[in-house]
């Protein structure tokens, strides 16, 4: 009966949490599985199913590491989402995550699990030989290298991102020749600077005057490089609410 109640709670927690961040929702499922691994083994044993893998300490170490790193990836994914998120904001989030990966790698070599709570609990239950610090540090290194490879093109666009974020602090002399004159006019325009301070960088790109066509074109091109999924997900959420309301009313 206890196992049944826990299985029902697992189902409810999965249904609630999986919809929060859909493509990383499985990370929370990993967390729930790690919490219920003993009960899962008991259930499988009662059904005559093989549960040797689930009882293996090294496999459990792999599982809790997956739980922790997926939780960090979920936080990164959430930082990519939301109203008025621009490519430069995503670039900052990605750079910060790469620095964090390097920190975690160093701390893993020292068996410092400050930012890996599930691994910390597991480390208190198994020996250091079972929980191989080098093995998991190498995994973090591999993740960091892969992120660097996938987002290497971002570095080439760094100056464009800075111009999109705040054109009023860009050094005109180092800017592209085709926008230098317009950039000078923009930076010397007190009204536009006040407008920027009021609406922020995301909305300011939409109010750049037509008299500055090169800056408008640059802003449009840069913003379209990697848009947030917020605008796509917002109407989907509204449609889901409407459909649920229709079913309840019907």
TrEMBL record:
This is General transcription factor II-I repeat domain-containing protein 2-like. It comes from Octopus sinensis (East Asian common octopus). The lineage of its organism: Eukaryota, Metazoa, Spiralia, Lophotrochozoa, Mollusca.
